[in-house]
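Supplementary Methods. Inverse-folding protocol.

Structures were first reduced to a C-alpha coordinate string of length 172. This string, shown here, constituted the complete conditioning input.
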Protein backbone atom coordinates (compact mmCIF):
# COMPACT_ATOMS: atom_id res chain seq x y z
CA UNK A 1 0.00 0.00 0.00
CA UNK A 2 2.87 2.37 0.70
CA UNK A 3 3.11 5.57 2.67
CA UNK A 4 0.37 8.13 2.00
CA UNK A 5 1.24 11.68 1.00
CA UNK A 6 -1.77 13.10 2.84
CA UNK A 7 -3.84 11.93 5.80
CA UNK A 8 -7.23 13.51 6.46
CA UNK A 9 -8.73 12.81 9.88
CA UNK A 10 -11.18 14.22 12.34
CA UNK A 11 -9.92 16.24 15.29
CA UNK A 12 -9.97 13.30 17.68
CA UNK A 13 -7.17 12.93 20.22
CA UNK A 14 -6.17 9.66 18.57
CA UNK A 15 -5.01 11.72 15.57
CA UNK A 16 -3.85 14.90 17.29
CA UNK A 17 -0.93 13.78 19.41
CA UNK A 18 2.84 13.79 19.42
CA UNK A 19 3.13 10.24 18.08
CA UNK A 20 1.11 11.07 14.96
CA UNK A 21 3.02 14.34 14.49
CA UNK A 22 6.35 12.48 14.68
CA UNK A 23 5.13 9.81 12.25
CA UNK A 24 3.96 12.45 9.77
CA UNK A 25 7.22 14.35 10.10
CA UNK A 26 9.36 11.24 9.69
CA UNK A 27 7.59 10.07 6.53
CA UNK A 28 6.80 13.56 5.14
CA UNK A 29 3.05 13.04 5.40
CA UNK A 30 0.82 16.09 5.29
CA UNK A 31 -1.88 15.78 7.98
CA UNK A 32 -5.13 17.67 7.43
CA UNK A 33 -8.10 17.69 9.79
CA UNK A 34 -11.78 18.04 9.00
CA UNK A 35 -13.72 21.00 10.30
CA UNK A 36 -14.70 20.91 13.96
CA UNK A 37 -18.36 20.12 14.66
CA UNK A 38 -19.05 19.73 10.95
CA UNK A 39 -18.91 16.04 10.02
CA UNK A 40 -20.19 16.78 6.50
CA UNK A 41 -16.72 18.17 5.72
CA UNK A 42 -15.52 14.57 5.85
CA UNK A 43 -18.51 13.40 3.83
CA UNK A 44 -17.11 10.30 2.16
CA UNK A 45 -15.89 8.83 5.44
CA UNK A 46 -19.18 9.71 7.12
CA UNK A 47 -21.15 8.03 4.30
CA UNK A 48 -19.02 4.89 4.65
CA UNK A 49 -19.55 4.90 8.41
CA UNK A 50 -23.30 5.22 7.87
CA UNK A 51 -23.27 2.22 5.51
CA UNK A 52 -21.17 0.15 7.92
CA UNK A 53 -23.50 1.02 10.81
CA UNK A 54 -26.47 -0.14 8.71
CA UNK A 55 -24.72 -3.44 7.92
CA UNK A 56 -23.80 -3.96 11.57
CA UNK A 57 -27.36 -3.20 12.72
CA UNK A 58 -28.60 -6.00 10.46
CA UNK A 59 -25.96 -8.51 11.51
CA UNK A 60 -25.67 -7.83 15.25
CA UNK A 61 -28.90 -9.10 16.72
CA UNK A 62 -28.93 -10.65 20.19
CA UNK A 63 -25.65 -9.61 21.76
CA UNK A 64 -24.73 -6.09 20.74
CA UNK A 65 -21.42 -6.33 22.61
CA UNK A 66 -19.93 -8.60 19.94
CA UNK A 67 -20.29 -6.00 17.17
CA UNK A 68 -16.52 -5.98 16.72
CA UNK A 69 -16.69 -9.63 15.62
CA UNK A 70 -19.00 -8.61 12.77
CA UNK A 71 -16.92 -5.60 11.70
CA UNK A 72 -14.50 -7.41 9.35
CA UNK A 73 -17.28 -9.27 7.50
CA UNK A 74 -19.15 -5.94 7.21
CA UNK A 75 -16.04 -4.26 5.79
CA UNK A 76 -15.57 -7.16 3.36
CA UNK A 77 -19.19 -6.85 2.19
CA UNK A 78 -18.78 -3.11 1.73
CA UNK A 79 -15.48 -3.38 -0.15
CA UNK A 80 -16.67 -6.13 -2.51
CA UNK A 81 -20.06 -4.62 -3.39
CA UNK A 82 -20.50 -2.51 -6.50
CA UNK A 83 -21.02 1.15 -5.67
CA UNK A 84 -23.65 2.87 -7.78
CA UNK A 85 -21.69 6.14 -8.19
CA UNK A 86 -18.57 4.43 -9.59
CA UNK A 87 -20.04 1.28 -11.13
CA UNK A 88 -17.21 -0.70 -9.51
CA UNK A 89 -16.24 -2.27 -6.20
CA UNK A 90 -13.76 -0.43 -3.96
CA UNK A 91 -11.69 -3.64 -3.97
CA UNK A 92 -11.36 -3.65 -7.76
CA UNK A 93 -10.39 0.02 -7.86
CA UNK A 94 -7.56 -0.66 -5.42
CA UNK A 95 -6.29 -4.03 -6.66
CA UNK A 96 -7.26 -4.05 -10.34
CA UNK A 97 -9.33 -7.24 -10.15
CA UNK A 98 -12.38 -8.47 -8.32
CA UNK A 99 -11.96 -10.26 -5.00
CA UNK A 100 -12.24 -14.02 -4.84
CA UNK A 101 -15.39 -14.51 -2.81
CA UNK A 102 -15.60 -17.25 -0.17
CA UNK A 103 -18.34 -18.98 -2.16
CA UNK A 104 -16.03 -19.14 -5.20
CA UNK A 105 -13.55 -21.17 -3.16
CA UNK A 106 -16.22 -23.71 -2.21
CA UNK A 107 -17.94 -23.76 -5.61
CA UNK A 108 -15.42 -22.60 -8.24
CA UNK A 109 -16.83 -19.96 -10.57
CA UNK A 110 -16.00 -19.73 -14.26
CA UNK A 111 -13.53 -16.95 -13.48
CA UNK A 112 -11.67 -19.09 -10.93
CA UNK A 113 -11.78 -22.15 -13.20
CA UNK A 114 -10.26 -20.17 -16.08
CA UNK A 115 -7.45 -18.95 -13.82
CA UNK A 116 -6.62 -22.56 -12.99
CA UNK A 117 -6.30 -23.43 -16.69
CA UNK A 118 -3.75 -20.68 -17.42
CA UNK A 119 -0.10 -21.53 -17.10
CA UNK A 120 2.08 -19.25 -14.99
CA UNK A 121 3.27 -17.07 -17.89
CA UNK A 122 -0.24 -16.62 -19.30
CA UNK A 123 -1.60 -15.78 -15.84
CA UNK A 124 1.20 -13.25 -15.28
CA UNK A 125 0.48 -11.66 -18.66
CA UNK A 126 -3.26 -11.46 -17.91
CA UNK A 127 -2.57 -9.90 -14.51
CA UNK A 128 -0.16 -7.33 -15.97
CA UNK A 129 -2.81 -6.42 -18.52
CA UNK A 130 -5.33 -5.90 -15.69
CA UNK A 131 -2.91 -3.68 -13.80
CA UNK A 132 -2.05 -1.66 -16.90
CA UNK A 133 -5.72 -0.88 -17.46
CA UNK A 134 -6.24 0.02 -13.78
CA UNK A 135 -5.58 3.75 -14.26
CA UNK A 136 -8.13 3.84 -17.06
CA UNK A 137 -10.62 1.93 -14.91
CA UNK A 138 -10.11 4.42 -12.08
CA UNK A 139 -10.59 7.38 -14.43
CA UNK A 140 -13.79 5.79 -15.76
CA UNK A 141 -15.02 5.30 -12.19
CA UNK A 142 -14.20 8.92 -11.37
CA UNK A 143 -16.11 10.10 -14.44
CA UNK A 144 -19.13 7.91 -13.56
CA UNK A 145 -19.00 9.32 -10.02
CA UNK A 146 -19.11 12.89 -11.37
CA UNK A 147 -22.05 12.07 -13.65
CA UNK A 148 -23.86 10.41 -10.73
CA UNK A 149 -23.22 13.40 -8.44
CA UNK A 150 -24.52 15.80 -11.12
CA UNK A 151 -27.65 13.67 -11.56
CA UNK A 152 -28.25 13.63 -7.79
CA UNK A 153 -27.74 17.40 -7.67
CA UNK A 154 -30.28 17.95 -10.45
CA UNK A 155 -32.78 15.66 -8.67
CA UNK A 156 -32.34 17.60 -5.44
CA UNK A 157 -32.60 20.98 -7.16
CA UNK A 158 -35.94 19.99 -8.74
CA UNK A 159 -37.45 20.01 -5.25
CA UNK A 160 -35.89 23.31 -4.22
CA UNK A 161 -37.39 26.58 -5.30
CA UNK A 162 -35.98 30.03 -4.88
CA UNK A 163 -37.66 32.39 -2.46
CA UNK A 164 -37.25 36.11 -2.56
CA UNK A 165 -36.64 37.48 0.91
CA UNK A 166 -36.82 41.18 1.58
CA UNK A 167 -35.91 43.30 4.56
CA UNK A 168 -38.66 43.12 7.13
CA UNK A 169 -39.92 39.66 6.02
CA UNK A 170 -40.45 37.10 8.76
CA UNK A 171 -38.21 34.08 8.32
CA UNK A 172 -37.76 30.93 10.36
Amino acid sequence: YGIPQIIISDNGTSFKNEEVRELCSKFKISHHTASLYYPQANGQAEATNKTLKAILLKTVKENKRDWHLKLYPALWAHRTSIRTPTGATPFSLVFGSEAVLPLEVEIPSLRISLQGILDEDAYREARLSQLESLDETRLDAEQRHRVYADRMCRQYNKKVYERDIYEGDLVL
